[in-house]
């Protein structure tokens, strides 16, 4: 009687006793796992590809074209074929930064107005936002309705809101003069809000009215992450409301405030819609923001090379300020963590 031979094990199958797989088996497994790893690693980039293409098409490509235009003497006669415009080199930038010439002085004045406007608008928007967020932090009857009312300016379309403000700021039949002059008697005569020095105040008021609900929304969400136990412990220790805000609320909101202030600064400094809708194509000298100034220099005089140069200078300024701000805030955050 012939003895049965044991079954042969396939070469790629590991031994049934749990021994180490052969070299050929390991190579086969690596070949099968490699495509899976590639797919898993490349999936996030594949999902980001549409957004990256749109970013290149909408922002980066026009930005690159604008930088190239700033080095050319691009006027109205070359607008159809801007590549044929004469090469100007750094002449457009020299004209922009020459503060002794009228053109440079006008740009410097617009830059100063924009800086003052940004500081006031961002500071007031943040102050109103954090105040409203703290006041509506605790539950009370009608809190949801009040929060919805606070967010109304941010929800309205910008053109509708600013056009409404332009009607309210009219001298003869505007609501603002009707209340301040006719009803309250604060002013001796109806004021001009859309021309003259008062135009700066009107611009700040409209900008703050538009942006402070965003600060309120972000800070309200951030307040929800502060543990209530901290406030209860502070109350037991005898801390008052202001001490709780100073010692608990504001330090806890600092990471959010860093991002919020930066976003508000970039939005406000680059704001074009509000002054353009409020004042039209020609803004008053007191409210001559740099965004409107660049628009007027480009499309009123048809000097697109000079307008592009000013836009590049504005971009460089914002990049430097943003980098410095992030550097300072990150160093401050690391220093506080080490002290803790």
From TrEMBL:
<keyword id="KW-1133">Transmembrane helix</keyword>
<comment type="similarity">
    <text>Belongs to the binding-protein-dependent transport system permease family.</text>
</comment>
<dbReference type="InterPro" id="IPR000515">
    <property type="entry name" value="MetI-like"/>
</dbReference>
<dbReference type="GO" id="GO:0005886">
    <property type="term" value="C:plasma membrane"/>
</dbReference>
<feature type="region of interest" description="Disordered">
    <location>
        <begin position="1"/>
        <end position="31"/>
    </location>
</feature>
<feature type="compositionally biased region" description="Basic residues">
    <location>
        <begin position="21"/>
        <end position="31"/>
    </location>
</feature>
<feature type="transmembrane region" description="Helical">
    <location>
        <begin position="45"/>
        <end position="71"/>
    </location>
</feature>
<feature type="transmembrane region" description="Helical">
    <location>
        <begin position="111"/>
        <end position="136"/>
    </location>
</feature>
<keyword id="KW-0813">Transport</keyword>
<feature type="transmembrane region" description="Helical">
    <location>
        <begin position="304"/>
        <end position="328"/>
    </location>
</feature>
<feature type="transmembrane region" description="Helical">
    <location>
        <begin position="148"/>
        <end position="168"/>
    </location>
</feature>
<keyword id="KW-0472">Membrane</keyword>
<dbReference type="Pfam" id="PF00528">
    <property type="entry name" value="BPD_transp_1"/>
</dbReference>
<keyword id="KW-0812">Transmembrane</keyword>
<feature type="transmembrane region" description="Helical">
    <location>
        <begin position="259"/>
        <end position="279"/>
    </location>
</feature>
<feature type="domain" description="ABC transmembrane type-1">
    <location>
        <begin position="111"/>
        <end position="325"/>
    </location>
</feature>
<keyword id="KW-1003">Cell membrane</keyword>
<dbReference type="GO" id="GO:0055085">
    <property type="term" value="P:transmembrane transport"/>
</dbReference>
<dbReference type="InterPro" id="IPR035906">
    <property type="entry name" value="MetI-like_sf"/>
</dbReference>
<protein>
    <submittedName>
        <fullName>Sugar ABC transporter permease</fullName>
    </submittedName>
</protein>
<dbReference type="InterPro" id="IPR051393">
    <property type="entry name" value="ABC_transporter_permease"/>
</dbReference>
<feature type="transmembrane region" description="Helical">
    <location>
        <begin position="200"/>
        <end position="223"/>
    </location>
</feature>
<feature type="compositionally biased region" description="Pro residues">
    <location>
        <begin position="7"/>
        <end position="18"/>
    </location>
</feature>
